[in-house]
Amino acid sequence: MPTVVLTFDDSTVDHLAVAKMLSRRGLKGTFYVNSGRLGKRGFLSVAAVRAIAKLGHEIGGHTLHHPHLPEAFDAAQQAEICDDRRALLKMGFAVRSFAYPFGAIDESSKRIAMGCGYNSARDINGLYRPDSCRACPVTETIPPADPAAVRATSQSRLPRTARTLREFVTRAQQEKDPGMVTFVFHEIKNEPRDQYATAPKEFAAFIDWVAKQRTAGKIDVRTMGDVVGGGVSPVP
């Protein structure tokens, strides 16, 4: 059966409520946090991130300030990635997983992310899409083929409905050698003009279905850190 990984980027203020929604359904997610944004308007406080972690969810790194990494020199990338991880570790979070802002990635950012002690670094695409990537694999392998560029589903420009989200999972359930399907969520809010936002009603319907599929033994639901494995390394 496939493994579903639910990830949430950007540490926006709604993510504490999202974490509680998941917990009520017995699900765990991975929340990729920008430590430099914490406490600012529209973003989580440090206390809120601690509350998310206390519920059993994974806290991952997402850089200090959410830059396009390939546009920066290596030293700036190093500061954004490593200093963010160092700050999160200092706050007490067991940070093992990283996500590239905007999915912007090059060989330098891959090398630096893994050099900062991360066990995995998540992209935002690379898996099957019905409109533009029919030849792409339906699932990422376990362990990932490239831990420095973990492939994920891309829902940009697709209807962010429970039905669309379910189809990524049901397609994976038909695979002979299912791996993992990683979802990338941003804000959960009612904002139809925001292509990255998912309406709370659609999100709730999707995770209700995910929870039922998990209870029925048809899927597994795990955090990125638990799927990839490995300990918590210090920042070099």
From TrEMBL:
Keywords: Signal. Residues 2-199 form the NodB homology domain. Coiled coil: none annotated. SUPFAM superfamilies: Glycoside hydrolase/deacetylase (SSF88713). This is Polysaccharide deacetylase family protein. The keyword Signal applies. The keyword Transport does not apply. Pfam families: Polysacc_deac_1 (PF01522).
